[in-house]
Amino acid sequence: MMPKLAIGVLAVLLFWVPLPFGSVVDWAHVVLRICTVGLLCLVAFTGPRGAIRAVGVLIAAMLFISVLGWIQAARFPSAIVGAVSPAHLEIAAKAAEETVPVTGARLSLTPYRSREVGLSWLAVAACLMVAAMAVRVRQRRVLLFTLVGAALFQVLYGARHWMANMTEIWGVSAPSDVNRLRGTFVNSDHFALYAELALVVVFAWVWIALRRDRANLPPERRLLAIAPPVLVWLTLIAAIAFTGSRAGIAAAAVATVVQGLLLAARQQRVGLATAGVSAVLLGVLFISVLGVQAGFGRWMATSRSELTWNGRMEIYAASLELSKEFPVLGTGLGSFREAFAMVQPAKLQATVGHAHNDYLEMLVTTGVVGGLVLLIGAGFTARRLGRLLMTTERSEDAAAVLAALGACVAVGLHSFVDFGLTMPANSVTFVVIVGAALAVGAKSEEKAV
Q1: Where are the alpha helices (DSSP H) in 137-274?
Q2: How far apart are CA 375 and CA 380, in angstroms?
């Protein structure tokens, strides 16, 4: 009973988390942490053991990053700090008065931020764990269809404001390019990532509907099965195009093609390899009908020099240099803004709060240690999902895995040029999709216990 209640609460949280500006505001972080503590209390002793094992490595990696933030924020003797990160000790010495000996220092440039971000990682890990409790098909349906409903609400809300050239979100001024769709997110690129996560889920839904269409059903039943997911998919692909996010459009296209290739590998049918390409072409055709310039205008207006030599290249180069100064444990979780100010090129006048590359930012803030731990967690997840896709017999179980693999591709590509996963709305949604898929094999494992 408790896991079912927890999944219901998680579904409500999944719908809510993008509403307060993508949950980027501080109070939304607090609400998320409180809710996840409650969720953990519900499943701590009643969740299926197989489900916990299914996500154990990934959760351990996320918990490590959470704990690392608190370790970085703690004060250590100078000898320890000097051995682990001489740059931190040097900064502490410069900050202290010359007459005061430096007896200790911290491994984070912003200890309070490291603790806060550590708590956020803990909250997201809790959402992953609860999502893994969805070992039954109906429970996964609740989570994934809640996500689809939330994404459609975002599109409708954003379209209303977009067509009216409004810059407010919930009545609060949030200036942005009024020509770009953004839902309730401040940044259109971050909304694009959110829409990508829903898109890969709906692609799996389309596949299930097409498989059911092969059954001996009357024409009207076939239409009722196929039409809804196709219409939702077209709506989401158009929404991504109208965000104007170049990374979003590219990641959505590649993720869809990869999902088609994965279906071909699972079914051992070469013809299915064209499914992803056909879907992308259908999406392009649909957007063309709506208006090519409106849907792909920002992409089409991008010059070669802007794409290759814009300010992000300067940020990447400076960030790599910064990572060399703090190689082991990084500058401190959540400290990128303050750390980058030490190496910011004169060409960049504005304050740089993120690396515009999630991988690079994690390398800067958590060092090689944090990067390796996350790489291990990601490798385990990809390996398990790939195995489940090939071995799972039930089509709806395979669809959940297909959605998770598509989400990994979309997030993996988008994160090279953006910082969308720093938005709790995106990180929570992503881990829910992945956690629900990893739980597919947990049901059979639980029987063997």
Answers
A1: 137-163, 188-213, 219-242, 246-267
A2: 9
**Helical pair 26-43 and 111-131, crossing angle rounded to 10 deg:** 40
> How far is 94 from 8, CA to CA, in rounded Å?
52
Residue whose tokens read 């090939």: 390
- Six-digit token string for 374: 């996350």
The count of residues in the chain is: 449
Any idea which residue has 């259109």 for tokens? 188
pLDDT digits (tens, 9 = 90+) for 297-356: 555 555 444 444 467 888 999 999 999 999 999 999 999 999 999 998 888 777 888 999
160-192 pLDDT, tens digit per residue, is: 988 888 889 998 988 877 788 999 999 999 999
Nearest C-alpha neighbor of 180 from the set 228, 112, 133, 245: 245
Sign of the four-CA dihedral 42, 48, 51, 56 = positive
Average pLDDT, the chain: 86
Contact between residue 378 and residue 404 where contact means Cβ atoms under 8 Å apart = no
3-class DSSP assignment, residue 105: strand
Residue 75 in 3-state DSSP? strand
How high is the pLDDT of residue 289? 57
Q: What is the pLDDT of residue 213?
A: 56
* Residue 168 backbone phi and psi in degrees, to 5: -90, 150
For the chain, the maximum distance between any two Cα atoms, rounded to a whole number of angstroms, is 88
Global pTM exceeds 0.85: yes
For the chain, the domains span 2-448
**Cα–Cα distance, 120 to 104 (Å, whole number):** 27
